Amino acid sequence: MARTGRAVVTSGQSFEIREYAVPDPEPGKILLRQELAGICGTDLHNWQNGIQGEMLLGHENVGIIEAIGPGGAEDYLGRSLEEGDRVIFAPGTQGYGAYGFYTTPDVAPHFYGGFADYIYLGLPTTCLMKTTASPEVAVLTEPFTVGVHAAMRGQVKLGDTVVVQGSGAIGLVTLLCAKLMGAAQIIVVGGPAKRLELAKKYGADVTINIEEVRSVEERTKQVLWHTPKKEGADVVFECSGFLPATPEGLGYVKRSGTFVEVGHFVDMGSIELNINRLMMRKNLRFEAIWGSQYEHFVRGLRILEKNEYPYAEMVSHTLPLDRVAEGFHALDGTYRLGDEEVIKIAVKAWED
Fold first, then answer.
1. Residue 192: is the preceding peptide bond cis (ω within 30°)?
2. CATH says 144-288 is which class?
3. How confident is the model over 58-109, as pLDDT tens digits?
4. What is the Cα–Cα distance from 21 to 291, expressed in whole angstroms?
5. What number of other Cβ atoms are within 10 A of residue 278's Cβ?
6. What is 4-133+307-348's CATH topology?
7. HEC secondary structure over the chain
8. Which of 36, 66, 155, 236 has its CA 20 to 30 A from that of 74?
């Protein structure tokens, strides 16, 4: 009798667990037994907009190799892979689509999304790497690479003053990468309190809680007060994904500084802003990144494996497959599961 595995199918804003036949890997392909899959802000925003049709979500993944197709396989760095190896992979491929955005779940091989018992790495040009990191650290690789990309694009320099808007996973990893690149003063504007406590562990010098400081004018005043000569930050990273954060963040940048848009991987609408006052008069450089490339996975995973910061603390909660909906609702504004504040939520298919 063929094995079956569970996968979460999302449609509109509803979730359904379905059983599918588990595929035997073809030559050069790999079947992973999923360990953890992070709920990303992109997953959340797509769900908030309402998934059109059906989709297998989940693209922040770590798993154990269950089976390898005939002929064996190597990872992106040319290292031989064996059953039992822990691996991470880039969700996007070069020209063949992406894991975690699969729109025909009932079509084999089915397991192209992370919220499932298995993940089938069957897309050509998949970038995967084996890792020595724990599951709780390895699952952060994909968001961490966004931080790597953002900090590199922002060209953070030794001694810079940096502002990070947003204290979710993307804000926290961007903070870490800016710190590693030499930022001397880092200000994080976000919330709730538990996330800001972790931001301080990661190197934030100043935190401003938006649940307590609700006025844009007051937040801007506090940010500028902590910058040299109160003139603004060298680099500002918008990582929250909320539309009003962009014009607010532009107000944090000093003349000839840099603004990097990191938080909008899903179309959440448009905003109005004064281009002359917020951009032109400041002579600023405006950057925007789109995800990450394979090189960022190579760079980022090597840093995570050193485990020099308490990376695993970012995963504050893990939920079984049948509680995925709770995770999405917790991240949809309140950032709380019951009475507990959440930082990052991961889905865990198997019990230890």
1. yes
2. alpha beta
3. 999 999 999 999 999 999 999 999 999 999 999 999 989 999 999 999 999 9
4. 31
5. 19
6. Quinone Oxidoreductase; Chain A, domain 1 (3.90.180)
7. CCCEEEEEEEEECEEEEEEEECCCCCCCCEEEEEEEEECCHHHHHHHHHCEEEEEECCCEEEEEEEEECCCCCECCCCCECCCCCEEEECCECCCCCECCCECCCCCCCCCCCCCECEEEECCCCCCEEECCCCHHHHCCHHHHHHHHHHHHHHCCCCCCEEEEECCCHHHHHHHHHHHHCCCCEEEEEECCHHHHHHHHHCCCCEEEECCCCCCHHHHHHHHHHCCHHHCCEEEEEECCCCCCHHHHHHCCEEEEEEEEECCCCCCCCCCCCCHHHHHHCCCCEEEECCCCCHHHHHHHHHHHHHCCCCHHHHEEEEEEHHHHHHHHHHHHHHCEECCEECCEEEEECCCC
8. 36
Query: What is the Cβ-side half-sphere exposure of residue 349, based on CA atoms within 13 angstroms?
Result: 23
**C-alpha–C-alpha distance, residues 51 and 26, integer Å:** 30
Banded pLDDT at 333 (limits 50, 70, 90): confident
Q: Where are the domains of the chain?
A: 4-133+307-348, 144-288
Sequence-separated (6 or more) residues with CB below 8 Å from residue 106: 18, 20, 54
Cα dihedral 303, 304, 305, 306, rounded to 10, equals: 60
Q: Among all chains, which residue has been given the structure tokens 């030499």?
A: 182
Question: What is the rounded distance in angstroms from the CA atom of residue 300 to the CA atom of residue 144?
Answer: 6
Order of strands across the sheet that contains 233-238: 206-209, 185-190, 161-165, 233-238, 253-261, 285-288
Say what the pTM is: 0.95
Q: Is the dihedral of CA 166, 167, 172, 177 positive or negative?
A: positive
pLDDT digits (tens, 9 = 90+) for 3-25: 999 999 999 999 999 999 999 99
Q: Residue 10, CB half-sphere, CA atoms under 13 Å: how many?
A: 28
Encoded tokens for 57: 């979500």
Instruction: For residues 330 and 268, give the distance between their C-alpha atoms in angstroms, rounded to a whole number.
Output: 19
